[in-house]
Amino acid sequence: MKLRGLILCGGESKRMGRDKGLIVENGQPWVKIVSNLFEALRMEYFLSINASQEMRYNKFFPSDQFIYDAVDAPGPLRGILSAHNAFPENNWLILACDMIEMKGETIKNIIDKVAQNPDYEYWIYKNPSFFEPFCGVYSARGLHKLVEAYQHGDLSGFSMQNIFKHAAVFCCPTAGHQSSFKNFNQI
């Protein structure tokens, strides 16, 4: 399965109070720290942003790497469905811009699970309580079904957790990878 990377940067960052992707850590904005993971894998990647972020992100990335929010959907689904609409045949390895503790081996592990178990729609890490949607692989097939459900208004009470509960998901345990999923959603 050919994969492209997608870094979700277009969120409102309400809990952080500022654009998370541009927070600087060790001299680099978070989005660059995350993009370095894709570059180490030699994987083509894009950034999901909203139009108001373009000038700020152009300081670090060329415009041809941007996928602009073009779907009026809640939360991260806005960026994910916008990417699917832009490239409907793509399968996406999705990371959030605040996944600055993500390890290359965690990404490689999920990619290996895709190769070993190709008949799923999503390959998602899961801790004992809930899914960890970012780092995950989202197939074009699964996203097409999600677009159809969204267009028919079938995503009431939307949450990534509910989507995965009702889809063909390969659950990859977070055991041994917990440090990759440190939450940076609050100051």
Secondary structure blueprint with pairings:
Layout: E1 3-8, E2 24-25, E3 28-29, H1 30-40, E4 45-49, H2 54-57, E5 66-68, H3 77-86, E6 91-96, H4 104-116, E7 122-126, E8 131-138, H5 140-151, H6 160-165, E9 169-173
Parallel strand pairs: 1-4, 1-6, 4-5, 7-9
Antiparallel strand pairs: 2-3, 6-8, 7-8
Secondary structure tally: strands: 9
List the secondary-structure elements in sequence, H or E. EEEHEHEHEHEEHHE
Biggest sheet, spatial arrangement of strands: 5-4-1-6-8-7-9
Distance between the termini: 38 Å
Q: What is the makeup of the main sheet?
A: 7 strands, mixed
Q: Structural class given helices, strands, pairing?
A: alpha/beta
Count of DSSP-assigned helices: 6
* Helix content, binned percent: 25-40%
Average pLDDT taken over every residue: 91
Shape: globular
| Percent in strands | 15-25%
Radius of gyration: 15 Å
